């Protein structure tokens, strides 16, 4: 017999009342639904490149006469394998951030030096499309941040900007200090491009996992559909906010506001 505290009982141990337990399950259900949708999406996303690798490898094994066709099949196998690699990396990264196994490790960051090295990483891809990378970062601006995570935020935003901007376009990053009414200080960053833009109806959803405006376009540029979702998580981990403005055919700007200093508890 389990004795339930608070339920009236006679001296010989019989219950004379009932205890009702009401629990709000809406949030639990919502999270369960989100998790099972995520698992379904992940399986679908992983199956696509695996099926492509299998199909093209089998065709090659069956024998392809012409060398040029064989090479093009090998190239597809290589590219799909790379995508699979990126997908696995992004899924692991997202799960690490979401399960809070990736705490902030902050140090002072000199933003002009930081963006110099981020631009070095991006310069090859930008050059290939003849896209100009510009920046406007005050030389005296320092902030407290987890540098690796900050790098990932801007590499994701910049690689999207380059992917979704046509040949000869330009991409610009700015940073400027700003203060809140309560006296606390922020840095406001913008990452703007002169690319194809995002339709208004899609704007509220682009930070969702696996959401893409145009599946074919994202796949052909090697996207995983997880980049912006990772960016949003990393910005929020720094207690910041991110928003987006876009005009179709004109370009897109992401606006990121991060605190200049992180609280001790981090
Ligand atoms: P992906 O790997 O598909 O790029 P993201 O999560 O990084 O996934 O972005 C989600 C979607 O938002 C993209 O598929 C693309 O349609 C759109 N998008 C993101 N950045 C830009 C941009 N700078 N210009 C136009 N569209 C963009």
Topology (SSEs and partners):
Blueprint (H helix, E strand, L loop, with lengths): L25 H37 L4 H32 L8 E4 H18 L3 E5 L5 E4 L1 H17 L6 E10 L5 E9 L21 H6 L6 H11 L3 E7 L3 E9 L7
Parallel strand pairs: 2-4
Antiparallel strand pairs: 1-3, 4-5, 5-7, 6-7
The chain binds adenosine-5'-diphosphate.
Features:
alpha+beta; 45% helix; 7 strands; binds adenosine-5'-diphosphate; 266 residues; two-stranded antiparallel sheet; five-stranded mixed beta sheet; single chain
Structure explained in plain terms:
GO terms for molecular function: ATP binding; phosphoprotein phosphatase activity; phosphorelay sensor kinase activity. Keywords: ATP-binding, Cell membrane, Kinase, Membrane, Nucleotide-binding, Phosphoprotein, Transferase, Transmembrane, Transmembrane helix, Two-component regulatory system. The chain has helices spanning 26-62, 67-98, 111-128, 147-163, 215-220, 227-237, and strands at residues 107-110, 132-136, 142-145, 170-179, 185-193, 241-247, 251-259. It is an alpha+beta fold and 266 residues long. Strands 2-4-5-7-6 form a 5-stranded mixed sheet, covered by helices on one side. A two-stranded antiparallel ribbon has the order 1-3. The chain starts with 25 loop residues before the first helix and ends in a 7-residue tail after the last strand. The structure holds adenosine-5'-diphosphate. Adenosine-5'-diphosphate (ADP) binds at residues 160-161, 164, 193, 195-196, 198, 206, 211-214, 218, 223-229, 252.
Concise structural overview:
Residues 41-262 form the Histidine kinase domain. The protein contains six helices and seven strands, in the order ααβαββαββααββ.
